[in-house]
Amino acid sequence: MQQTQSNIYTPYTLPCGIRLKNRLAKAAMEENMAGIDMQPDHALFSLYRYWAHGGLGMIITGNVMVDDRAITGPGTVVIPLVGNLDRFKRWSSVIKSGGAKAIMQLNHPGRQMPKSISCTALAPSAIPLKLGRYSKRFARPVAMTCEQIHDVTHRFAQAAKRAKEAGFDGVEIHAAHGYLLSQFLSPLSNQRQDEWGGSLKNRARLLLNVVCQVRAQCGNNFIVMVKLNSGDFQRGGLSPDEASVVVELLDKLNVDLLELSGGNYESPAMQGRGEKEAELGKNAYFLSFAKAISSRVAMPVMTTGGITSKKTAEKAISDGCAVVGMASALAFTPDLVNKWQQKDDYLGVNPTCDWKDATLASVVVMAKVRRQLRRLGNDLTTMRNPTNFWSLLLDTLHRHKMISLYKKYLHKQNHHVAKPVRSVKRYVSSHVVSDVPSRDL
Ligand SMILES: Cc1cc2nc3c(=O)[nH]c(=O)nc-3n(C[C@H](O)[C@H](O)[C@H](O)COP(=O)(O)O)c2cc1C
Predict the structure, then answer these.
(1) CB–CB of 143/137 below 8 Å?
(2) CA 154 from chain center: how many Å?
(3) Nearest residue CA, atom 3 of ligand 1?
(4) Residue 156's closest CA among 142, 172, 178, 177?
(5) Which atom of ligand 1 is nearest to the CA of 326?
(6) Is residue 391 in some structural domain?
(7) Distance 427 CA to ligand 1 centre (A)
(8) Tens digit of pLDDT for each residue in 256-284?
(9) Domains in the chain: how many in total?
(10) Is the dihedral of CA 239, 242, 246, 247 positive or negative?
(11) Radius of gyration, CA atoms only, the chain
């Protein structure tokens, strides 16, 4: 098919008036590659330069934290609410250098925070993650006070304002994948009895407040996106019917683009797996929900998950999506969109792991992707078939190195660190990681 005949290359104007040059977006991928002060530096600039010149219409950063004591993983970027933004300005200009719009994804982990981070995990209710023998790797959360809930809302709004100051075209509020805003939506993790829990309207209150305050801080000529689960794909979690109601509530709030995904750490539907795997689409996991919902709301819809071929991307657009998101495939082939212009049937990589332990297999898939991100950040070529074992090992070593850097950062900021590093970890980070060359393998 010629480029001119394909629906994925047509420009699209979002409700705020900003025009995307085409319908293809790089979805958020946490890179775990921030510098020692949790800000973007040379590795992230190199990585994003590949995507900037890869033909995409929109590039969403990996999740950026709104609070430096609440991070999804070591090495994530944190946006400072005061002070210098020079490195963020440089980041946005790299992202925009090929004509794509730059979106910063904002997030708070809530209870999905590794215990090794050693900070107190806040959540709607004091309900820990249920991940079998891996549960103890996550901090036991503390139920948030109303004051803490208001503080988080304020942080999202201020962070969005700072993203705008730093030259980003918009922000995406992460309310999917079991992080804090998604925890508030889910009846499994939110068992509060006050105005933040119980009815769906109460459970959605935090998300809706965040969206309103972000818009109020950033004005109309700025892209405000939300990433939402089309369902948790988990018994007792947010159902597709409830998700539809949340979408209708968001539709009244001037949201520019709604990205639909699904799942969380307990049920990784975003990887096409989990408790209710049979309900997911084969090549575009959430497309049937996106198709149904896009015909009912005015807000443009984007779907992400499992898309690796031009044909599937075209189907998503003809099914009513305004934008198609891709993550893993763009880690392996950052110029996938350019490749599709030359070769219609070029197939992107969808990494898998056939290990029986579902949780570990999911960690391995993430490790394989992050390995490609680090390689690009070091200006190395990506690997099409990385092995499970080496990817996991290298990722573990990298994470230990990043944890120790994060603890140094916390000490510098005078933040309380809950527990000392376990001795074996201290050994690994001081003896093994320092021997790993900084150019990732
Ligand atoms: C290494 C890795 C990191 C991710 N980090 C984020 C993130 O920071 N924010 C987010 O919304 N989704 C994140 N995701 C999920 C992706 O955005 C996407 O929803 C999911 O991978 C499915 O899309 P895909 O099949 O194209 O990879 C991440 C996925 C991977 C593999």
Answers:
(1) no
(2) 20
(3) 29
(4) 172
(5) 26
(6) no
(7) 31
(8) 999 999 999 998 889 887 777 777 878 89
(9) 1
(10) positive
(11) 20
Return the ligand 1 atom nearest residue 369 CA.
Answer: 1
Residue with CA nearest ligand 1 atom 4: 29
Note the pLDDT tens digit of each residue in 147-200: 999 999 999 999 999 999 999 999 999 999 999 999 999 999 999 999 999 999
390, part of any domain: no
> For the range 311-317, what are the long-range contacts, defined as Cβ-Cβ under 8 Å and sequence gap of 24 or more?
311/345, 312/283, 312/284, 313/8, 313/23, 313/24, 314/6, 314/7, 314/8, 315/284, 315/287, 316/284, 316/287, 316/290, 317/7, 317/8, 317/23
- Type of residue at 390: W
Q: How far is the CA of 27 from the centre of ligand 1 (A)?
A: 7
Question: How far away, in angstroms, is 406 Cα from ligand 1 center?
Answer: 22
Residue ranges lining ligand 1, Cβ < 6 Å: 27-30, 62-63, 105, 174, 176-177, 227, 261, 270, 304-307, 326-329, 366, 369-370
27 found inside a domain: yes
Average pLDDT estimate for 369-380? 97
Structure-token pair, residue 109 = 């982990």
* Residue 72 CA, closest ligand 1 atom number: 8
Indicate whether 353 pLDDT > 60. yes
Q: What is the CATH number of the domain that holds 91?
A: 3.20.20.70
Strand pairing class (19-20; 12-13): antiparallel
CA distance 194 to 202: 8
List the domain range (segments joined by +) for residue 90.
3-358
Q: 376: CA distance to ligand 1 center in Å?
A: 17
Cα gap 107→175, rounded to integer Å: 8
> How far is the C-alpha of 32 from the C-alpha of 395, rounded, in Å?
10
Q: Closest ligand 1 atom, CA of 350?
A: 25
Answer yes or no: is 370 within a domain: no
CA of 63 to the centre of ligand 1 (A): 9
CA distance readout (Å), 162 to 59, 82, 104, 146: 18, 8, 10, 24
